[in-house]
Design goal:
- The complex is a heterodimer.
- By secondary structure, chain A is mainly beta.
- Chain A contains no helices and 11 strands.
- The chains are: A mainly beta, B mainly beta.
Chain lengths: 120, 112
């Protein structure tokens, strides 16, 4: 069955960078895009960006331009979210989700979430 | 403040029907972008209930249905069960600001 398994919780200091991984199994990895979405305390969701796993093309939300990168390693069936210059406002649960299709605007399978806490 | 607007809470008795609304604007729902609905239990990842406005993934019972019109969409749940108590979110795409997924603020469903 389709599974997305994310890396464990992180605690970072302001100004640090964080990398969250998302390992896929149960389907053809290059055939679906992967998106990253975060959920803030208070439950609000925020889309961060996505990667076309087949060709590596990425698109990021303007809200994160310049400090976010999404990468993939097709041999490891894993996607990565890099977020730099962390502040306390980046404290959230980060999810990877498989896009319904390349031109679709929703996700069908989601990772279990990774809590990133930014605190001095 | 979320781009898509949902009521903070709805409630219903077991067996009843409830609807959850999702209101947008001309750059998202009004531009005919598809709507998805997710259910989230506390501390777990969202699970898609409805995609592309009206479609149910395999395994989702037909008690759940989606509809949309102009700048709004709705999720209907019939035959309420205690296990339906959860947070529900609508999600779509917005073409402003170079385009991005957008979400509603979520609706807490309480089964009385």
């Amino acid at each position: 069955q389709v599974q997305l398994v994310q890396s464990g919780a992180e605690v970072k200091k302001p100004g640090d960078s964080v990398t969250v991984s998302c390992r896929a199994s149960g389907y053809s990895f290059p055939d679906y895009p992967l998106h990253w979405v975060r959920q803030m305390p208070g439950q609000k969701f925020e889309w961060m960006g996505w990667i076309n796993v087949a060709n590596g093309h990425t698109k990021y939300s303007q809200n994160f331009q310049g400090r976010v990168a999404i990468l993939r390693d097709t041999s490891a069936r894993t996607a990565y979210l890099d977020l730099s210059s962390l502040t306390s406002e980046d404290t959230a649960v980060y999810y990877c989700t498989r896009g319904l299709c390349d031109t679709c605007y929703g996700g069908d399978y989601w990772g279990q979430g990774t809590l990133v806490t930014v605190s001095s | 403040q979320s781009v898509l607007t949902q009521p903070p809470s709805v409630s219903g008795a077991p067996g009843q029907r409830v609807t959850i609304s999702c209101s947008g604007s001309s750059s998202n729902l009004g531009a005919d972008y598809d709507v998805q609905w997710y259910r989230q239990l506390r501390g777990t990842a969202p699970k898609v209930l409805i995609y592309a406005n009206t479609h149910r993934p395999s395994g989702i019972p037909d008690r759940f249905s989606g509809s949309r019109s102009d700048t709004s969409a709705s999720l209907a749940i019939t035959g309420l069960l205690a296990e339906d108590e959860a947070d529900y979110y609508c999600q779509s795409y917005d073409s402003s600001l170079s385009g991005s997924w957008v979400f509603g603020g979520g609706t807490k469903l309480t089964v009385l």
